[in-house]
Write a structure and sequence with these properties.
alpha+beta; Ribosomal Protein L30, Chain: A; 2 domains; 3-stranded antiparallel sheet; 3 strands; elongated
């Protein structure tokens, strides 16, 4: 029986986060339990392999309320992270709240947030 469990743990460790989420849903339906119980009932390697709740993609939104003395810096930062021209970046900043990126990996989203906030703007990251 130990070999069966080891094989199962090995197979589960190769699942993507999306497949792990699907597996969680199927186990909940099959066993009639919630996620907390399903994770506790699953082999330890499966739970540690890939947490389902960690988002990997984010929507990056420029928030309204940019101080007038920071607008030029924020426009420059928006141009840097989006590749927009001067007029388009100015319109985006003045029309905030607006999406800077509809989808971005976590690392890129955090980098964008740091650059915009360093320039004086406010950014909201929304997990997808």
């Amino acid at each position: 029986m130990t070999q069966v469990l080891e094989d199962l743990v090995e197979k589960l460790s190769h699942l993507s986060v999306l497949d792990m989420a699907k597996l969680k849903t199927k186990l909940e339906e099959k066993w009639g339990v919630t996620a907390a119980v399903a994770v506790a009932a699953a082999p330890a390697g499966a739970a540690a392999a890939a947490p389902v709740s960690d988002a990997t993609d984010f929507k990056v939104t420029l928030e309204a309320g940019i101080p007038d003395d920071k607008k030029i810096s924020v426009i420059k930062a928006v141009r840097e992270v989006t590749g927009l021209g001067l007029k388009e970046a100015k319109d985006l900043v003045e029309g905030a709240p607006k999406d800077l990126k509809p989808t971005a990996p976590k690392a890129e989203a955090e980098t964008i947030k740091q650059k915009i906030e360093a320039a004086g703007g406010k950014v909201k990251l929304t997990a997808l």
